[in-house]
């Protein structure tokens, strides 16, 4: 029976420079607006997102989030506080009750709201073209920094907030010994990636250059062989 989940969680980005920064400084937490499945409502919170998808099923993910990524051990991610999201639909009484409230409790705002994700909705490809997407297929996990401000929006305020520019986010710590895969787009990215890994590992006795190099594979390899 084919596996539909993985022991590795993947985080993707759209440039090799962002990939290198994540390797050096930890995963960047984008201050993200997340729409909920009722009209004109959503929330914003810093987050680093991961998908629980085996390599054999991950190819479509490239078109949405980019062809550069890092795969880390799920056991390690859980210890860092990474948790699976809760997919909800427009029929969800939970979401309906949240939207009706004028204010949310500290628990709802910090431990519940940031992990709600709409089952189905619109999202733009890397190309900018928007398409209907079943988010449930991503099996998303999230890292939410401690003491993050979670802002809840509804009505016209939510419409305006969706267009608000992203703000600088925090970082999720990354132990490079917990990396399982480093995904680059194409073979021509190898030289830059090798040079950057050499800089990262230089003088660091806890990291082995050869071990990290062995983790590299290209998106084209995955599309061809898996």
Automatic annotation (TrEMBL):
Pfam families, alphabetized: AbiGi (PF10899)
InterPro entries associated with the record: AbiGi
This protein's name: Abortive infection system antitoxin AbiGi family protein
Taxonomic lineage: Bacteria, Pseudomonadati, Bacteroidota, Cytophagia, Cytophagales
């Amino acid at each position: 029976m084919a596996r539909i989940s993985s022991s590795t969680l993947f985080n993707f980005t759209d440039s090799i420079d962002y990939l290198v920064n994540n390797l050096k400084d930890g995963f960047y937490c984008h201050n993200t607006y997340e729409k909920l499945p009722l009209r004109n409502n959503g929330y914003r919170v810093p987050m680093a997102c991961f998908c629980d998808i085996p390599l054999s099923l991950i190819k479509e993910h490239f078109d949405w989030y980019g062809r550069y990524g890092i795969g880390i051990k799920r056991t390690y991610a859980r210890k860092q506080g990474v948790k699976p999201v809760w997919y909800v639909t427009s029929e969800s009484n939970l979401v309906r009750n949240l939207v009706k409230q004028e204010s949310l409790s500290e628990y709802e705002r910090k431990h519940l709201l940031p992990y709600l994700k709409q089952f189905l909705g619109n999202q733009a490809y890397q190309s900018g073209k928007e398409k209907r997407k079943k988010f449930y297929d991503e099996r998303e996990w999230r890292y939410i920094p401690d003491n993050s401000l979670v802002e809840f929006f509804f009505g016209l305020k939510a419409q305006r907030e969706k267009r608000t520019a992203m703000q600088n986010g925090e970082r999720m710590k990354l132990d490079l010994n917990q990396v399982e895969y480093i995904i680059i787009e194409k073979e021509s990215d190898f030289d830059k990636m090798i040079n950057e890994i050499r800089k990262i590992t230089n003088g660091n006795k806890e990291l082995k250059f050869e071990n990290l190099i062995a983790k590299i594979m290209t998106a084209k390899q995955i599309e061809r062989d898996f």
